[in-house]
Amino acid sequence: MNILIAGCGQVGRSLAEQLYREGHEVTVMDTDYSVVEAATAASDVIGFQGDCTSLSAQMEAGIQDMDILIAATNQDEKNMLACLIAKKAGNCQTIARVRDPQYLDEIFFLREELGLSMSINPERVAADDLVRLIQIPSALEVDTFAKGKVSLIRLVIPEGSVLDGLYLKDYSSKVGSAALICVVERGKEVTIPGGDFQLKAGDSISLTLSLADLNGLLQKTGIKAKKIRNVLIAGGGMISYYLAKKLIELKISVKIIEKDPKRCDELAEVLPKAMVICGDATDKTLLLEESIEDMDAVCCLMGQDEANILLSLYVSKISDAKKMIKIHRDSYEDMVGDLPVGTIISTKRITAEYITRFVRSMQNSVGSNVEALYRLMDGRVEALEFNVGKNSQVTHAAIRELKIRKNTLICCINRKGAIIRPGGNDRIAAGDSVVVVTTEHGVNGIDDILEKW
Fold it and tell me: Which residues pair with 192 in a beta bridge?
């Protein structure tokens, strides 16, 4: 597909690299030549210097030949205007990054009036991810499928757990849980396990189950975590606002530390139930005054990666609080992977997942749209949810008869709201939504899980 990305900031560059790797013809566009040059140097994409809100600039960039315009500049209004121009001039699909809370209530109206195919608010989605992690303190990662009925939860097997030394074929008889273990990470190795796989303490496992079954599973497996009642948020940006708002609704005590006095006043006005402190969240004296050692969770959401990393490492030294950290730079994310910084949140990755899901749905001709897409284990595994069309090949036989690609597992089937943990004799029907995990590339539709003849 031909894709034009307007805005070559961190999100735009990340999108360009991801979509290029997936085989698309990508053009990037920005008014700043230096960032265009950086984007074209990072991957083999076409660069164009120009203003995405200019009709003539879009025409020169080839909007008339584009399938999709993705507007990812740092200005919401500019993104929406660029999409409107592209829709009129090129009649292509349009995606806008819209971040400001003032547009939150009007986004459905704006999408209809501007003809947007999709809008993405990475900060709000990141806040949703953080809330799920806070609600399940023992989880390293929580993703949702089937309209929230099924969760894919990443946990670490502790010493002494019933899971330590357990073969997966014995899981049902020994544990008796409805969960399905889909992915195992052991050291640097990632596996989509079969029945003969033996679990070990220290393994990071991703499993699907309903949230109603979670507490029972945690009790049986000896995975424990203290319920989170108070949260410290370092930094007062967009993610912090969305996160604090949701936590307050859940009756969780929230404390925000922000440097900028003006931003502190804004937060205090829109979040009257949060405690807003004007100060430096990397100041040890201030942190101790605010009893950081008594916090159940600390979210490091400042603008500088270095500050977030330092704060998270300091928290690791003084308490067992759950830690969540925002990191922008890919190189930093790789470097701190083995350090006790907690769960890493990346708005770039979130945006790429959402937009890649949309692009893959457009590519698929059978009609099994990608309903959800998450990248796990540093991007080495993908978890996808597909809506199954009536012409899909997977509906022609029982699951045990399907020739499914290696390193690919069908995790669950959602049939009109009923969640099925699939066995070999189960069949997939048109209208189902199906969750799949895979280490294979190029899975755009449900039929792509089958071996090619």
Answer: none
